[in-house]
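Posting for a labmate who doesn't have an account.
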Amino acid sequence: MKSVCTFWATLPSLDCVDKVVSVFSNPRITRVRFDTATISMYTPEEAVCILNDYAHKLNKILWVEVKGRQLRVVKWTDAFNNSIEINRKIQVKLPAQVVLPGGEKVNIIKVENGSVLYVDPIPNGVLKTGQTVQILARKLDVLDGYLTEEDKHYLDVCNNAGIKNIIASCVENQSDVDEILSYVPDAQILPRIESKNGIKLVKFRQLINSVGIMVDRENLYLQLMQSYEILDFLRLLISKEVNAVCAFKLFDSLLDYEKPSMADYSDMELMYSMGYRNFMLSEEICTRAFDNVMITLNKFIRG
């Protein structure tokens, strides 16, 4: 029997009521993450009210995630279009690549008005509104501050509702945390590290007014060019922050198979042996394979 682990779950879309209730009701899950970029029919006010009610009734700790400098597709792009419009204005030093959902990489050949990326070759599939994209470049700056207008709206709603637990995506500077505090003055902020600048922040500076650190293994692995360096950082992080949250890429084989792969078991065992005791499940796993992943986690704990 392993020592106590804390499992966090990312909520499916609020439109999927049965799946949301299943996540909130599971006794192994103690903390739930609401990704404000998830598309649903509810307004921010309605979504926060519904989630706050579930959290109180089912004794869960609710965390609301703002997206910060995370880059997402603004509008549907078909397979014959060589441009991708994103939600933030950027400055990027070419050559650079865009990593699309599913892992396809295309070259950026021009940036127009800061937010329209012309790429080559043309992406193979359709890009949907709201999908996350990663940019691989020697230098990338997201302009116009850390928070989006939608982030600011959600933070105002959270402050009015008394919700203080905020996950901050793509944190790279102390000023990112400070900007959130200007909207929710007594927020409990959990920075999410997913870039090389985020690594530098952990290595060389001490974040003030944060309550730990979450590492987004999926995005960070891409930003590190899928190198062994990801393991070096994971060791460093847990040595500096004993309650660090290991997020995503956990038992993803269950998205395609009924049983987890040996690689997934080995990965979880490695994270545990490094010292991680807090684990965050992705939205995709919680939407498509929640029951199977919870059976697997129970076996892991008993192992």
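Reply:
Got it, the structure tokens are right above this. The radius of gyration is 19 Å.
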